[in-house]
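Students often ask what a holo structure prediction actually looks like on paper. The answer is less mysterious than it sounds. You provide the chain, you provide the ligand, and the output is a string of discrete structure tokens encoding the 3D arrangement of the protein together with flavin-adenine dinucleotide.
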Amino acid sequence: MNILVCISNVPDTTTRIKYSADMKSVDYSGVQWIINPWDELALTRAIELKEANPALVQKITVITAGGADAEPTLRKALACGADDAIRVDAAGGDSLFTATQLAHAVKGEPFDVILCGIESSDYNGSAVGGMLAELLDYNSVSAVSSLNLEGNSVKVTREIDGGKQSIETSAPVVLIVQKGIAINPRIPSMRGIMTARTKPLKVVAAAAAAPGSKVVGYQAPPQKSACKMIDPENMDELVHLLHTEARVI
Amino acid sequence: MSVLVYIENWNGKFKKSTCELVSYGKRLANGLGGSLTLLSIGRVAEDELKNLGAYGAGKILSAETDAPLDDKAYASLIASAAQNSGATLVVMAHNVTGKALAPRVAVRLNAGLVSAVNGLPVSYQPFVVSKKAFSGKSLMQAEITSDIKVITLSQNTAGIETFAGNAAVETMDASAVTSGINVLSTEVQTGKILLSEADVVVSGGRGMRSADNWKPLEELAGVLGAATACSRPVSDEGWRPHHEHVGQTGKVVAPNLYFALGISGAIQHLAGISSSKVIVAVNKDPEAPIFSAADYGIVGDLQTVLPKMTEAFRKLKASS
Ligand SMILES: Cc1cc2nc3c(=O)[nH]c(=O)nc-3n(C[C@H](O)[C@H](O)[C@H](O)COP(=O)(O)OP(=O)(O)OC[C@H]3O[C@@H](n4cnc5c(N)ncnc54)[C@H](O)[C@@H]3O)c2cc1C
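The corresponding structure tokens follow.
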């Protein structure tokens, strides 16, 4: 089996968001870039599966759609344990544009299991995985919180509202994964970082694709008013304020 | 310009969030000067469907099937319903199911998708919607430029409105729905208030110290009829199940009232709770960042504060 992990290159989750003067774009200067946290967990699970059964999982490929500036993030994924990488040379665009680029690079390639994170921490779209599955005409399972492979059978747990289901499906399939798929993300070892430099990274030209949406502008979220401090000996006051002032109980 | 809303049932019943979604769809249809059609997939009694008339439902398509949620099959049904009803806007909830289906529906309809929209459009012409970006650190406005448009609505952001009128139910053929997945087993939590639906959430962090200390937290949740939640290290440690983990990499919640007990208020935790209407924080550290996100704060040790708090709420509940 070959596993493909889709990687979104995103600002570190602690980044303070700055904007251009006209508020029409985000100012990315000085930003630290990371593998999207859910994609990092997906990659971690893929590596665990390959380590547990190298005869079954032959290769792990990572892919991103982005400019050359996304390559360090792909190299990090290689350092974690992926075998090779693909960069579709297409930066910007919305989820439809991105999914179209990924589908263009993946179509006809022998990937059995495609893993995508449930959202990317920049635009919080929850869209690329499902779109990719539809463009490839593959089955998909979303909100996947555990994954096991047995022969050609793919066993997953998916979250449903207020519970979970255990599901069996078969390759090729797109799995849209969330928390639980792995707990602690892999951190590249020194040796991993060394070998990542020479692992193959293929650049694929962009496909012609039209986005379905575009950003009009940004706003900073409204400021919270100051926190009202309450004496820990006076819980009746808290109850009173929540009841009469905030009116939430 | 007509609107199609996909409504999800839970064992044949709709939830409060469905009413919100339907009344949101009605207001969108009014804004666009078109009609509203709902699509239900599964088995729902006619009366349950007709109840949605009070929230603005006119025509309801009921696709009766026993097939479990299969992303591909369900998406194809929703896309056909949109095409048959001439919908130019398709709306779904931004929940587990909506996240799974909306992207596939968008591709089928060659439509732009903006997900987790937080209310009515900023403008209909051009069609511009507002949503959070960077996990709550930014607000973004996006225009959907395609002819057909798909959006998902963040829960608890649009409010529920009622309308006069009756809903008419029509059946839609769902015999073509086949499933590419095999559901081996389903595990449903019973007797618990769902995190996604709860008006009040009581959440504990590492400051709770150990799994054994959750009893008083559950007691408070019981008194308030609240769902329980936790920070990431708490679920990573195995003190609480993963489905309770709130934040950037866990669930995003938007209750009316959120209790952060022994949670420091890391930016990744705040990402999951910033849409809460009111936040109450208890922390022994007066400098904890959670206090800059909270509306009401108590500096103190949970071991003593929590039982007193529960007692005070119990008094209120007993008197009302
Ligand atoms: C990529 C990434 C994603 C992440 N995603 C998430 C996420 O989704 N959700 C999430 O929660 N975190 C997430 N984190 C982790 C996050 O950065 C914090 O580490 C985490 O939120 C801290 O959890 P905590 O507040 O429970 O624990 P701590 O930070 O350890 O805070 C415990 C708090 O309890 C207080 N306390 C201790 N004892 C008592 C007592 N007896 N009485 C009262 N107060 C007490 C302390 O003063 C302290 O403020 C993520 C991190 C990364 C890097």
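Chain B touches chain A through 99 residues (CB under 8 Å).
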